[in-house]
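Reopening: peroxidase still failing for me.
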Amino acid sequence: MASMFISLLIFSFFFFLGTPLSSNYYQNTCPNVESIIKKVVSDATRNDKTAPAGLLRMHFHDCFIRGCDGSVLLNSKGKNTAEKDGPPNVSLHAFYVIDKAKKAVESVCPSVVSCADILALAARDAVVLAGGPSWDVPKGRKDGRISKASDTSQLPAPTFNISQLQQSFSQRGLSLEDLAALSGWLYTIYARAFH
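Support: Ran it again with your exact input. Result attached.
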């Protein structure tokens, strides 16, 4: 059951948004995108054992707010404090992995692959590198241009009890099993990083 969680989580958000995605979205425009990202994530994981958990958590936080649009990657500008700087997200890390992946992808396929897709692929690769399941990532997400720290209040708080967590997840079309699986994978990945 837990091994199916990651793909169910991702597909739940896609259907929630009604976004038409395709497994072969970059087949003609950037056919090597997945191998490029996988190499960057693999290299980062060799040097930072917490990178896989960081990438999975970052992707979850991104999807939970505006639906897997990469808005968690945007920086604060002027008077707008971005999601990245919202209280639940200040402890997110591994942004450098996405930056490196974006740079590597841009060197081969300039202005083709969205940051949202790079984050989704990197999160998948991180889970696989940590010993978790693999899945086909549908691609074609558009990058969000809105990112507000105030929106991070939608994320489940670490102080939530099981009823509050279940309600928070169910509002996004996710089940108690999804909650248990995500928690289990994050714990497993972090535990492997420190042993």
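Confidence is low (pLDDT under 50) at residues 1-5. If you still see a failure, please send the error message rather than a screenshot.
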